[in-house]
Amino acid sequence: MKKRVSIKDVALHVGVSTALVSYVLNNKKEGRISKEAAAKIRQAAIDLNYVPNQIARSLKSQKTNTIGLIVADIANPFSSQIARIIEDEAQKNGYSVIFGSSDESADKTQNLIFLLLNRQVDGFIVALPENAEKQLNYLAGIDIPFVLFDRYYPEVETNFVAIDNYKAASQAVQHLMANGRKQIGIVTYQTGLHHLSERKRGATDLIQNTSLEVNVRIDHLKEDVDAGIDRLLKLDTPVDALFFTTNLLAISGLKYLNELGVKVPEQIAVVGFDETDAFDLFYSPVTYVKQPMEQLASQSLRLLLDAIDNPGAKQGVVIDTELVVRKSSVS
Predict the structure, then answer these.
(1) Alpha carbon distances (Å) from 81 to 67, 71, 275, 291
(2) Could you tell me if 272 and 216 are in contact, meaning their C-beta atoms sit under 8 angstroms apart?
(3) Is 214 a domain residue?
(4) Considering its fold, how many domains does the chain have in total?
(5) Is 22 a residue whose pLDDT tops 90?
(6) How many Å apart are CA 143 and CA 155, to the nearest integer?
(7) Which of 244, 255, 326, 331 would disulfide-bridge 250, Cβ 3.0–4.6 Å?
(8) What is the residue range of 24's domain?
(9) Given this model, what pLDDT does residue 179 score?
(10) How far apart are CA 122 and CA 135, in angstroms?
(11) Residue 242: enclosing H or E segment and its boundaries?
């Protein structure tokens, strides 16, 4: 059998210490190493067909320097942006990230947790789906560092990073009211997820009219959005504004308004939630609640790395949003 190339072999080839080779190949910050030296070491590793021995490294350090990241759907622009930022920030800190999508399923989330534990991740960053209390209790019970991001359970003490969803929704509706809109419809998901419940509460506390609410089943999105908008337009006093609590709801609603020939903002003002390129492509650029993606991602990683280094520490971070006002909500 061909002998496995070691860090020592790479060091001898380049003429540097094994410590220096280890430092570079483990993706440590290279402030004290010249770019030329780091490049030479990486090239030597490629030329010699060096393969990292992660198992040996893990036994020695009790760490794999990998993080498990579970999002709702990696295809959703919000999830993919968050994942990319976390991946970039993790790499700067010498960590790799393994991704998985829960597809809003508690069972799939549990399977992903088992899978990632088998890969011996050092910790988790997780956006839990609805009815995932069992998965949350499991993570807490096995004593592994984890951070909930975007979604959290206020009654459970955990590390979490989230936005102030109530305040964000309130600001969106206040903006519509300030622009003369009197019949504001709310389109949201039929869910018990805390962050979406808070968005709904932030909006309905100002409107206080349940006939203006549309509660969409996640597995019947288009059908329920279309039917809900039809109902709101047929009220004795039709709605003159719509607030969508997620980007996917907003995109579906805009498509249907377009099909109906409803003019935005002349007939109906629109405010969405989360940034997406689709809002720029609509003929009337869409006003939206902008989540601070960089902060959400970097703070989630910071909390996880703190928890890995200081087991038992619990921190919660709540971040404000920004309302980006554009043509769709201003007459």
Answers:
(1) 17, 11, 10, 11
(2) no
(3) yes
(4) 3
(5) no
(6) 19
(7) 244
(8) 7-52
(9) 96
(10) 17
(11) strand 241-244
Structure tokens at 51: 């393969």
Return the exposure string of 123-157: e unless at least 16 CB atoms fall within 10 Å of the residue's CB, then b. Answer: bbbbbbbbebeebbeebeeeebbbbbbbbbeeeee
What band does 104 get if pLDDT is binned at 50, 70 and 90? very high
Let me know whether 195 and 241 are in one domain.
Answer: yes
Q: Do 112 and 198 lie in a common domain? A: no
Using only C-alpha atoms, the chain has a radius of gyration, in whole angstroms, of 24
Q: Which of 139-148, 162-171, 223-232 has the lowest mean pLDDT?
A: 139-148
Beta bridge partners of 244: 187
Between β-strands 322-324 and 287-290, what pairing exists: parallel, antiparallel or unpaired? Answer: antiparallel
Residue 182: count of CB within 10 angstroms of its CB: 10
133: Cα separation from own chain's centroid: 19
Pair 83, 71: CB distance under 8 Å: yes
Residue showing tokens 């959703």: 76
pTM of the predicted structure, to 2 decimals: 0.80
Measured distance CA(47)–CA(58) in Å, rounded: 25
| DSSP assignment of 259-295 | HHT--TTTT-EEEEES--HHHHHSSS--EEEEP-HHH
